[in-house]
Amino acid sequence: MIHGINVTLYQKQQTGEDAFGAPVFNEVSETVHNVLIGEPTAEELVNELQLYGKRLAYTLALPKGDAHDWHDVTVEFFGQRFRTYGDVTEGIEAMIPLHWNKKVKVERYG
């Protein structure tokens, strides 16, 4: 049976404001279980670089029912940090037979 790995998701949480009224954020980490990691094809690498100027590292398949915000966040797996970009692609949960129905792209970060 196919199963994913644990991925650490770092989300920004507003902790207050500075003296000028600008928001101050802190990174909060959370583990997301059962995430599939996919390697991009050569065509996807070229297209992403030409269209968005991003160097696609992996595509993450997110488990059904996941309610996290995956837009422009830092994730960690394989001992490395990555940054998500683009919109999350989501399929109809009832129409997909496996445990994953969303995809998000990541680029190497840091």
Detailed description of the structure:
- The protein is mostly beta strands and 110 residues long.
- 10% of the residues lie in helices and 55% in strands.
- It has a six-stranded antiparallel barrel.
- The protein is globular.
- The N and C termini lie far apart (34 Å).
- The mean pLDDT is 93.
Describe what is shown at a glance.
By secondary structure, the chain is mainly beta.
CATH class: Mainly Beta
So how many helices?
1
Strand order of the main beta sheet, please? 1-2-3-6-5-4
Shape, please? globular
> Describe the biggest sheet?
6 strands, antiparallel, barrel
Oligomer: single chain
State the main characteristics.
6 strands, 1 helix, single chain, 110 residues, Thrombin, subunit H, 6-stranded antiparallel beta barrel, globular, mainly beta, 10% helix
